[in-house]
Design goal:
The protein is an alpha/beta fold and about 425 residues long. About 35% of the residues lie in helices and about 20% in strands. The structure holds 2H-imidazol-4-ylacetic acid and zinc ion (ZN).
Amino acid sequence: MKKRVDTILTNIGQLLTMKSDGPRAGKAMKEVGLMEDAVVAISEGKIFYAGNEFSAKDFDANEVLDCEGKLVTPGLVDPHTHVVFGGSREHEMALKQQGVPYLDILKNGGGILSTVEKTREATEDELYAKAKFHLDRMISYGVTTAEVKSGYGLDVETELKQLKTTKRLDNSHPIDLVSTFLGAHAIPHEYKHDPQAFLDEMIGMLDFIKEAKLADFVDIFTETGVFTVEQSREYLKKAKEAGFGLKIHADEIDPLGGTEMAAELGAMSADHLVGSSDEGIDKLAKAGTVAVLLPGTTFYLGKDTYARARKMIDEGVIVSLATDFNPGSSPTENIQLIMTLAAIRLKMSPEEIMNAMTVNAAHAIGRGNEAGQIVEGRQADVVIWDAPNYMYLPYHYGVNHVNTVLKNGRVVSKRREILHETSVSSKS
Ligand code: IZC
Ligand code: ZN
């Protein structure tokens, strides 16, 4: 008796199931659940079967996707983005070229604060349309689950506008979105002389955000000229009491000790970590706090020193990777470019990169049981790649290797069609 299913993927060259009982650290990051001659069957939006004990002829499917010997992996997970924002910051490029540091641009009212101005001006519909455009691009690069932060409002009204936009996008866009409240992203000019009063205002929003289910996580930018480690610790403690998971922008530019603090508070993830100390890395490993590394940001800030991924992996930290897509320090939706930067600058292996962008990324945003693996019963989030194997992805860089993206079993993105015909004789 053939098994009736909705869709089967046949003729798969290489299947990475990424099957794992939990997040992967250290040497376990070498495992990718590689299978040859495998078939994937999908029923009602879920993985019905993935393996090589059965073959295509054992299934009666409505739809057959011939993978033509290509690589098939789980949909990628981008666990750190700032997708909902107004405006853009291309005018800062010239300042950067003149050597003006990122934090000086912010101190002078630009940077994050210039995006705050544009986000305050935008209507909810404008924010929605703009973010949808970026999410469409993200899915075309193979992302099927992503985290989205607020933090360009810095007042009650605009923070809520951003969070509501994220919720609306989660309900309407194929990418599953996990929402993070980043009210503590910068000090708005109206509170320039009283950052604590500003933090108190953001703390005042927590219960409402929780009740309205507008965010799962709370995050803070712990950095020189923004929030101190002590301010951040007190703020995050309040967020924990209110029932949120914790995230932190830690040691991105100056090594202040945010890494240690994140681990001490049992944060779900600590992100950036360019300047993390040995002690901080040790604490992350012991606490099981995920290190979300953002090499695209280091690249775009023009820095030479990257996060110490090799040391983190050797010490047993759960390492993940993300785009940090935002209009200032990492304006790109291209998660595949992050793969290459992770390979070249963080010296991560292709296997480690795949774990960082699937299993560990899903875990970093509390979706470890739903996303990041092609395993029976899980949501059928699958990418078919124009690549013969997974090592090819970080190797051939700067372009989009996606052939087809399936979200909950449905084809939601396909490689762009080329709208011309090439005849051999026409150029002779
Ligand atoms: O808009 O510059 N680092 N937050 C912390 C950012 C970068 C985003 C931005
Ligand atoms: Zn960020």
